[in-house]
Design brief:
This protein is α/β, with parallel strands linked by helices and about 280 residues long. Helix content is about 40%, strand content about 15%. It is built from ten helices and eleven strands. The strands form three sheets. Strands 1-11-8-7-5-6 form a six-stranded parallel beta sheet. It has a three-stranded parallel beta sheet with strand order 3-2-4, sandwiched between helices. The longest helix has 23 residues.
Length: about 280
């Protein structure tokens, strides 16, 4: 069993990003990321804080627009429109989830596709499906980067993804399909989940349910990527996989924390740098 160490790889990627940011800065361009945070959800505040620290480490300019929980949707959309036209902002990220009175789809669609560094705009989603260049959602992008770093073969493999969200499961499935894997996408209505997971050469799970995946659900020699993250009553951070009992069966497995999480932030920074390079090229 070998650990897929996302933390160390993310640090390496950040070092590379910092070097490229320094080169861009000499050309008069500093990559800029704007984050919109609505409300005071502790988890969202924590994620935004980690992103801001990562930007600081790599030399990316970042600004956070904090808005009250009861903000009107029109006011939120006006802020996005302002950022769309700000020439110093290369990436716009709206921290999810949004309050229930806000139409999340309308908000994500309001972000200019060339600044959609989260990769959630339908334009970028469509380009992933068509296997065209675009912005890839950070978590799926991080998963593929991690597997490729460890030279794990993907072509021809049976990949099972548990969790079919628009943010992770669906785009991750498209990315694996583009790598010529055979995809099974499972969700809350999937019957006999174990029948699918037992056949997985690569098993990815991201639903936020601790210990969902047990050792009986994983075949020996599988690669397991745990995308889920939950906080137990005792304060422990865990994923969706019963790590202690599943890990001995695996060829590779991600830890939680220290696996996919750091790769998500690194991928967001990569997308922001990519957008800044496009700005440099087009000016």
């Amino acid at each position: 069993m070998q650990i897929l160490d996302g933390k160390t790889l993310a640090q390496k990627i950040e070092t590379e990003i910092k070097s490229e940011v320094e080169i861009l800065s000499k050309q008069g361009i500093t990559p800029g990321l704007a984050v919109i945070l609505v409300g005071s959800d502790p988890a969202s505040q924590s994620y935004v804080g980690m992103k801001a620290k990562a930007c600081k480490r790599t030399g990316i300019y970042s600004i956070t627009h904090e808005m009250p929980q009861n903000i009107a949707q029109d006011s939120l959309l006006q802020t996005i429109e302002m950022l769309n036209h700000n020439p110093n902002i290369d990436g716009i990220l709206v921290q999810l989830p949004l309050p229930k009175h806000i139409d999340t789809t309308a908000v994500l669609e309001a972000i200019a596709p060339h600044k959609d560094v989260d990769g959630f705009h339908p334009f970028n989603m469509g380009r992933i499906l068509a296997n065209l260049e675009g912005f890839i959602p950070a978590t799926p992008m991080g998963v593929l980067t991690l597997l490729k770093h460890y030279q794990i073969p993907i072509q021809g493999k049976n990949v099972v993804i548990v969790g079919a969200s628009n943010i992770v499961g669906k785009p991750l499935g498209a990315l694996f399909l583009n790598e010529n894997a055979t995809i099974t996408l499972c969700h809350i209505y999937t019957q006999d989940l174990i029948e699918h997971t037992k056949n997985a050469d690569i098993l990815c799970v991201g639903v936020g349910k601790p210990n969902l995946i047990t050792k009986e659900m994983v075949k020996e020699g599988a690669i397991v990527v745990d995308i889920g993250i939950s906080k137990l009553p005792n304060g422990q951070i865990v994923g969706d996989v019963d790590f202690e009992n599943v890990a001995p069966l695996c060829e590779f497995i991600t830890p939680v924390p220290g696996g996919v999480g750091p790769m998500t932030i690194a991928s967001l920074l990569q997308n922001t740098l990519k957008s800044a390079k496009l700005r440099s090229f087009n000016r």
